[in-house]
């Protein structure tokens, strides 16, 4: 994918109101394949003051999509077909979670991706995302 188109798509994803309200940002400026980061805050925690588990699939989905961009055939896009997530440990209020992903397999019609959330060296969650290539 040409760099200008990729940058425009990345910015569109990050500018979605929900993503903006969560404070999602690229972990490394200009490198969507490096993943996304988000500070855990009062707005993103459950009553136990840890990252709300419902946000894990969202973070994995966004990260997997951004990771897939450079692997997509020219002129194609990807939409989520299915996803799974497992929360392994708590991410506490004030910590920064970093979500990274890898492309496990890219076929003609589907992409299979894996991702994980970490706080420093601690794995917080893992998951898989399947995207249809359209």
Automatic annotation (TrEMBL):
Keywords: Hydrolase. It holds the Pfam family 4HBT. Residues 50-123 form the Thioesterase domain. GO terms for molecular function: hydrolase activity. It comes from the Bacteria. CDD domains: PaaI_thioesterase. This is PaaI family thioesterase. It is an enzyme of class 3 (hydrolase).
